[in-house]
Amino acid sequence: MKIEQLMSSPPVTIDMDDTLEQVRNLFLELKFHHLLVVRHGVLRGVLSDRDLLKSVSHRVGTAAETRSDLDTLKRRVHQIMVRDPVSLAPEDTVRDAVRLFNEHGVSCLPVVDDRNRPVGIVSWRDIMARLAA
Questions:
Q1: Residue 21 and residue 93: Cα distance in Å, rounded?
Q2: What span, in angstroms and rounded, lies between the C-alpha atoms of 79 and 20?
Q3: Gap between the Cα atoms of 51 and 98, Å rounded
Q4: What is the pLDDT along the chain (133 residues), one digit of tens a residue?
Q5: Rounded distance between C-alpha atoms, residue 117 and residue 43, angstroms
Q6: pTM of the model
């Protein structure tokens, strides 16, 4: 099976200079686990909800919150994103995706065109869901 039959498309993208507060709001609104980071439409990185959780103070939104805690939300995506992520082409297969998941220990793979522009995203959960159907 080709990845283009399985990928989520179009992918939600963010810019390298977006703040972590903007990204946090997107994650809360969209219920996604991964966002693709682009610069001028070209894939530059991936940011996961786990990356965000590790980078924002755990006191944000609590009674113990301080100005320093809030400042963690002002950081920029490029400061915490995974750079140069491994990716797939739409014509790659599920077998190719499984190999990359196993080799690189990632939980999502961006799907890009021949100019490295994101056209989709696939997670290991997408593959498991398809296998279970």
A1: 36
A2: 10
A3: 22
A4: 999 999 999 999 999 999 999 999 999 999 889 999 999 999 999 999 999 999 888 888 778 878 887 888 899 999 999 999 999 999 999 999 999 999 999 999 999 999 999 999 999 999 999 888 7
A5: 6
A6: 0.91
Homologous superfamily of 3-132: CBS-domain (3.10.580.10)
Phi, psi of 52 (to 5 degrees): -65, -45
- State both tokens at 34: 């991964």
- Compute the distance between CA of residue 11 and CA of residue 126 in angstroms, rounded to an integer: 14
- How many whole angstroms separate alpha carbon 50 and alpha carbon 9? 22
Tokens of 15: 């810019």
First-to-last alpha carbon distance for the chain, in angstroms, is: 14
How is residue 133 annotated by DSSP? -
